C-alpha cells in the first residue's frame, strides 16, 4: 500500500470510539497517519472532503472514507486479513457481533455516559462549547449537573448488571480473553471498551463510586481490562509513530491517490428501500446526529453497508445498522417549452451510445427542446482502431459520418447525416427557431461550450490511453499528465464563469446547448472519478443545482436511454 493510501484516522483524545480503532491499529502494527479533530463541531478538515457526518472516528484510505468505528475495524480486517486478532469460526464471529451491538447499542455506553463525573474540574462537562455541541447532537438535551445526577443511579445499576454478565458468563471459567486463551481478538475490542473507559480512563475517575462495582466485586473483569491494556501498551511501543497531518495535507494526499477500495457493485436483491444504483441519496445516523446528512450518488448497497460517491468524488462508506438512507426527490422541473403550433419536425435517427458524453449532450438538448418523441435511438459502438467490442459498428456509422464517430444524426431533410455534436446542436436550435442575442454573454458561453468539449476530449483520450495503449505497452504517463492539466485548466475557467455569472442558475424553461455541454462535461468527470471539485466551490454549487435537471436525470451514462419519454410510441424513420 503506497503512502497516498496509508490509513488516515480522524480522531481526538477523549473519543472512546476512536480508542477502539487505535487499539486495533497498534495490536496489528498497522502504519497509519492521523488528523486530530476538535471534540465538537465544526470540523473543517472533514468538510474539505465533503463529509457532513459529525461523529468520530472517521478513517480515509485512498479515495474512500469510512464512518463508524465498527465499519472501520471491519474494513481494516478485510484490507489486512489473517491477523492474530481475527476470529476463526462463524460462531466466534457471531459472539463478536453480539458483543459489538450489546456494548454500543444495548445500553452499556448510554448508561456509562450517565456516570461521567460531571463534578471533575477541567472535564468536558465543564466546557460550555462541548455542552452546547452535545445538546445539538441529542435534540436539545443539555448535560447539566442536575440532569447527570438524576440519571446516575439508574446508570450505575444497569452497569452493575453488565459487569455481572462479563464476570459470571464469559470470564467465569477463568479464560484470559473472550474467545479463550490464544490472545486478544477483535471480540475483546468490541466488548472491552466501555469497561476500560469506566475503570482506567482518568477522565472517568470515581465514575463507579456508590454503585457496588469494584475490583473486589468483579476481579476477573478488572483483571481482563488491565491485561488487555497491558497488551495494547506493549503493542503501541512497537508501532511506528503516526504522522500528524492537517486538513489541507490530508486533502492533498488523498487527491494524489487513484485507489478506491473495491465494493460489491450494485444493490442487494429484494432490499426493502427499493433504491437503485446511482440514485441521489442522503445517509445519516438514525439514533442521534440525524441533522448531519451526507448526500451523494448510490454506489453500492449490501445488507450491512451503504456506499455513496459525494460531490468531492470520494466514496463514503456507512454501516446500515442504525443508519437511515433516503432517496433525494429532485424538485419538479417544468416540462419542456412546447413547440410552436404547426411546426413540422422531421423524423430523426440518432446513432448513439449512452457512455458517449457527446451523444449525451445532443440527446439532453433534444429533451430540453421536447424533441425526443421525434428521435429513434440507434445504439452503436465505435472506436478509432479495430478493437473487439468497441469498434463493431465502425462501418455502419461511416456510411453517414466518414470519420466513424458519434453522435451522428440522420434526418429526413439531411439523409446523408449530420455529425459533430456542436453541429447537431445547431441543427436542433434551428429546428425549433431558437433565437439568442449575439452579445458578449453569448460568445462567452459559446467559448465555455468549446471548453467543455475540450475537457471531454481530454477525458476520452485518458480512457483510450488506459484501455487501449496501455495493454499494447505504449502508454505515456506524460501524455496522461498533459490531458489532466487541460482538464484542470478548463475547470478553472468554468469556476470563474460561475463566479462572474456567465454560468447561471437553471432556467425554468429550456437550457441552451452551451449550458448542457458544461453540465455533461462535469458529469463525465464525476462518473470517471477524476478530481474536479477541489478549490472550486462555486462550480460544485452550480453542478449540484443543475444535475437535478430532467434531461440530465434521463440520460445516465451507465444505463440505456429511451427516446419518446412521455409519448405513446417512439418515432420511426
UniProtKB/TrEMBL annotation:
PANTHER family: MALEYLACETOACETATE ISOMERASE. Transmembrane segments: none annotated. Pfam families: DUF7962, GST_N_2, GST_N_3. This is GST N-terminal domain-containing protein. It comes from Aaosphaeria arxii CBS 175.79. Residues 346-436 form the GST N-terminal domain. GO terms for biological process: glutathione metabolic process; L-phenylalanine catabolic process. InterPro entries: DUF7962 (IPR058268), Glutathione-S-Trfase_C_sf (IPR036282), Glutathione_S-Trfase_N (IPR004045), Thioredoxin-like_sf (IPR036249). GO terms for molecular function: glutathione transferase activity; maleylacetoacetate isomerase activity. The lineage of its organism: Eukaryota, Fungi, Dikarya, Ascomycota, Pezizomycotina.
Amino acid at each position: 500500500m503506497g503512502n497516498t493510501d496509508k490509513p488516515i484516522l480522524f480522531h481526538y483524545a477523549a473519543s472512546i470510539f476512536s480508542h477502539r480503532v487505535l487499539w486495533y491499529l497498534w495490536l496489528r502494527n498497522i502504519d497509519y497517519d492521523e488528523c486530530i479533530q476538535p471534540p465538537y463541531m465544526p470540523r473543517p478538515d472533514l468538510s474539505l472532503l465533503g463529509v457532513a457526518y459529525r461523529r468520530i472516528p472517521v478513517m480515509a484510505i485512498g479515495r474512500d472514507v469510512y464512518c463508524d468505528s465498527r465499519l472501520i475495524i471491519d474494513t481494516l480486517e478485510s484490507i489486512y486479513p489473517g491477523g492474530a486478532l481475527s476470529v476463526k469460526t462463524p460462531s466466534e464471529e457471531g459472539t463478536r457481533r453480539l458483543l459489538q451491538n450489546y456494548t454500543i447499542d444495548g445500553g452499556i455506553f448510554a448508561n456509562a455516559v450517565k456516570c461521567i463525573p460531571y463534578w471533575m474540574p477541567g472535564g468536558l462537562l465543564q466546557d460550555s462549547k462541548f455542552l452546547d455541541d452535545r445538546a445539538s447532537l441529542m435534540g436539545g438535551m443539555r448535560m447539566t449537573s442536575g440532569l447527570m445526577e438524576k440519571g446516575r443511579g439508574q446508570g450505575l445499576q444497569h452497569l452493575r448488571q453488565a459487569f455481572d454478565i462479563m464476570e459470571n458468563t464469559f470470564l467465569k471459567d477463568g479464560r484470559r480473553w473472550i474467545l479463550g486463551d490464544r490472545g486478544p481478538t477483535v471480540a475483546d475490542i468490541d466488548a472491552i471498551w466501555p469497561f476500560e473507559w469506566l475503570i482506567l480512563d482518568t477522565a472517568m475517575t470515581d465514575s463507579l463510586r456508590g454503585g457496588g462495582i469494584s475490583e473486589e466485586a468483579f476481579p476477573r473483569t478488572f483483571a481482563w481490562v488491565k491485561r488487555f491494556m497491558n497488551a495494547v501498551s506493549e503493542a503501541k511501543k512497537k508501532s511506528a509513530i503516526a504522522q500528524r497531518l492537517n486538513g489541507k495535507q490530508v486533502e492533498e494526499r488523498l487527491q494524489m491517490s487513484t485507489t478506491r477500495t473495491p465494493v460489491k457493485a450494485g444493490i442487494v436483491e429484494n432490499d426493502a428501500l427499493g433504491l437503485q444504483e446511482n440514485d441521489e441519496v442522503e445517509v445519516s445516523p438514525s439514533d442521534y446526529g440525524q441533522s448531519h446528512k451526507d448526500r451523494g450518488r448510490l454506489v453500492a448497497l449490501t445488507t450491512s453497508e451503504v456506499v455513496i460517491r459525494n460531490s468531492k468524488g470520494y466514496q463514503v462508506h456507512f454501516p446500515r445498522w442504525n443508519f437511515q438512507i433516503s432517496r433525494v426527490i429532485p424538485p419538479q422541473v417544468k416540462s419542456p417549452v412546447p413547440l410552436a403550433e404547426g411546426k413540422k419536425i422531421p423524423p430523426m435517427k440518432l446513432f448513439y451510445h449512452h457512455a458517449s458524453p457527446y451523444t449525451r449532450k445532443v440527446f439532453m438538448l433534444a429533451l430540453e427542446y421536447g424533441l425526443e418523441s421525434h428521435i429513434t435511438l440507434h445504439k452503436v459502438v465505435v472506436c478509432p482502431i479495430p478493437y473487439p467490442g468497441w469498434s463493431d459498428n465502425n462501418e455502419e456509422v461511416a456510411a453517414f459520418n466518414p470519420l466513424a464517430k458519434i453522435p451522428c444524426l440522420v434526418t429526413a431533410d439531411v439523409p446523408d447525416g449530420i455529425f459533430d455534436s456542436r453541429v447537431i446542436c445547431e441543427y436542433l436550435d434551428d429546428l425549433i427557431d431558437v433565437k439568442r442575442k449575439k452579445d458578449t454573454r453569448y460568445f462567452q458561453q459559446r467559448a465555455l461550450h468549446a471548453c467543455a468539449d475540450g475537457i471531454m476530449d481530454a477525458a476520452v483520450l485518458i480512457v483510450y490511453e488506459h484501455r487501449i495503449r496501455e495493454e499494447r505497452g505504449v502508454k505515456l504517463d506524460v501524455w496522461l499528465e498533459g490531458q489532466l492539466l487541460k482538464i484542470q485548466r478548463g475547470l478553472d475557467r468554468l469556476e470563474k464563469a460561475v463566479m462572474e455569472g456567465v454560468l447561471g442558475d437553471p432556467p425554468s424553461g429550456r437550457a441552451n446547448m452551451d449550458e448542457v455541454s458544461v453540465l455533461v462535461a462535469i458529469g463525465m468527470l464525476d462518473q470517471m472519478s477524476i478530481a474536479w471539485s477541489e478549490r472550486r466551490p462555486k462550480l460544485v454549487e452550480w453542478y449540484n443545482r443543475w444535475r437535478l435537471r430532467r434531461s440530465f436525470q434521463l440520460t445516465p451514462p451507465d444505463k440505456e436511454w429511451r427516446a419518446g419519454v412521455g409519448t405513446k410510441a417512439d418515432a420511426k424513420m
